[in-house]
Amino acid sequence: QVHLLESGGGLVQAGDSLRLSCTASTRPNTMGWFRQAPGKGREFVAAIRMRDGTTNYTDAAKERFKVSRDIAKRTLYLQMNGLNPEDTAVYYCAGSDSYLLFGDYSMYAYWGQGTQVIVSS
Questions:
Q1: Angstrom distance (rounded) from CA 91 to CA 117
Q2: 3-state secondary structure of 60
Q3: SS3 for 3?
Q4: Which of 13, 47, 106, 120 could be disulfide-bonded to 32 (CB atoms 3.0-4.6 Å)?
Q5: What is the mean pLDDT of residues 101-120?
């Protein structure tokens, strides 16, 4: 069983940057970030294959966000720049035993509790 713990969320202003972190108890093969805004479904943001750093992003996330990992620390990061109010959501870290960079949340078996990001205008 993999346990994931996110941190780094908070209240920021439009245009600010924020870095989210997610530490895993044991390293999944793939880790990703999803987000869920109020009243909306869970949305894929980015994923990374832990062994080689290969990434997958939505087109929107690719412009302003960067996913990275620290293998030694078993930690996943999401650097978010140029935040706007539409980025307000609970951000979830996810882990998968697969090496494929799925954008479908149902393919991830392990989930953190989520960290809230609020962007004020």
A1: 7
A2: helix
A3: coil
A4: 47
A5: 95
